[in-house]
Structure formats: structure tokens, C-alpha cells
Specification:
about 220 residues; 7 strands; globular; Peptide_deformylase
Length: about 220
């Protein structure tokens, strides 16, 4: 059903994108629907691979069907690198990557920035400016080695972290914009909802067959 190295993206209309994700337990093993159970490190590595495949800058666990408080993100040499081209290797342009387990975010600079264009891998093809984000934030999280970490970020990276934190609370970037903008994209969003429904039906059938194979 899927490339074993890449998770399918959950699209607008999928209920998992609207759930508040739960806290992860230490050393918890996870099962992405359609895949075998994996360690947290394996899931994080595969999420990063999926993010690079999609030419993204961040990816939250709900976007691959896991309602847990986990996201991955990267800082590229160029803030807009993920939107450029499509053939080059994004990994070679990464300054640093992040795996954030059970992140907790606080705002450092409450002044709002609306200057960046924002999009979402779960809402492909739709980009909008004007999403208000705090200029600087602090995130406390656990890394893959179980160590507590704290990072401060401003401008574009702060926006990335806020976008991914939103995903963990069932919020999408379009929610921050006026209702008329949603209406402008209504046709595209309806199409994504149809794709999502088809995917979920196919996934349910795939899981049913896997269960039968195990029983058989």
C-alpha cells in the first residue's frame, strides 16, 4: 500500500488532524496505521524521511495518523529552501534538525508577525500570508535520548515551531485566518476531504486484510 520508508500524509478532512494529541510515555512503541509497530526513534527517523520527501520544514505526528505529542522539524540554510525546486537533496541543506517529544511552548516576544507565507503538508497547494505568529518562542521538550532540552527561536523558526505545536492541539494554519479566505479555497478543500475519505476507506480495507492474514 505504501513506500515502506515514507508515511502517507493525512490530508485536510481527516479526523486525526482535529484531535488533541496525547502525551507520550517513556520508551513507548508506536504503530502508524498501515505499518508495523516501531520504536519512537524509528518513527521519528521515518517522519523526517517523509518530511524531506514532501519538501517540508516540519511534520507533526498527527499528520501521519499518530495522535501523540511529537513533531520533527529542520532549519535549512535558506528559510524558503523547502519550497524551491524538487530534485535536489534537502538533507544536504539542513543546518540542524529537531525531534521534539512532549514539547511545551511559551511565548518570549508577543509581538505578532504576519509577513511570512505559510502552508501545510496536510493542505497541499494552499499558501497564505497573514497568519499571525509570535515573533519569538521557547520550547521545552524531551529528545530521543530522554534528555530534557530547551530552545529559543525567533522569526521563521519560531513560526515553524508554532505551526507544529498547533497540529498537536488539532489546529490548522487556516484556522488563524478570516473565514472568507477559507471560502476562497473551498473547492480545493472539498477535494482534499474527498481524497482523505478515500484514503481512510483504503486504509481500513488494508488493515482488515492484514488481520485476516494473521488469523489465516
Amino acid at each position: 500500500m505504501t513506500d515502506p520508508r515514507i508515511y502517507p500524509m493525512r490530508l485536510y478532512g481527516d479526523p486525526v488532524l482535529r484531535r488533541k494529541a496525547r502525551v507520550l510515555k517513556p520508551d513507548e512503541r508506536l504503530t502508524v496505521p498501515g505499518f508495523d509497530t516501531q520504536s519512537l526513534r524509528e518513527v521519528a527517523d521515518q517522519m523526517l524521511e517523509t518530511m524531506f520527501e514532501q519538501r517540508g520544514v516540519g511534520l507533526a505526528a498527527p499528520q501521519v495518523g499518530l495522535s501523540v505529542r511529537l513533531f520533527v522539524a529542520v532549519e535549512y540554510e535558506d528559510d524558503e529552501e523547502e519550497n524551491e525546486g524538487g530534485e535536489d537533496n534537502l538533507r544536504s541543506k539542513v543546518l540542524r534538525d529537531f525531534v521534539m517529544i512532549n514539547p511545551v511552548m511559551s511565548v518570549i516576544d508577543k509581538k505578532k508577525d504576519r509577513s511570512y507565507q505559510e502552508g501545510c503538508l496536510s493542505i497541499p497547494g494552499i499558501y497564505e500570508e497573514g497568519v499571525p505568529r509570535a515573533r519569538a518562542v521557547q520550547v521545552r521538550y524531551t529528545d530521543l535520548d530522554g534528555k530534557e532540552r530547551t530552545i529559543e527561536a525567533d522569526d521563521y523558526l519560531a513560526r515553524v515551531f508554532q505551526h507544529e505545536m498547533d497540529h498537536l492541539d488539532g489546529v490548522l494554519f487556516l484556522d488563524h485566518l478570516p473565514a472568507e479566505i477559507m471560502e476562497d479555497h473551498r473547492k480545493a478543500l472539498t477535494g482534499l476531504q474527498r481524497q482523505s475519505k478515500t484514503f481512510l476507506n483504503d486504509l481500513a480495507e488494508h488493515e482488515r486484510r492484514r488481520q485476516l492474514e494473521r488469523l489465516g
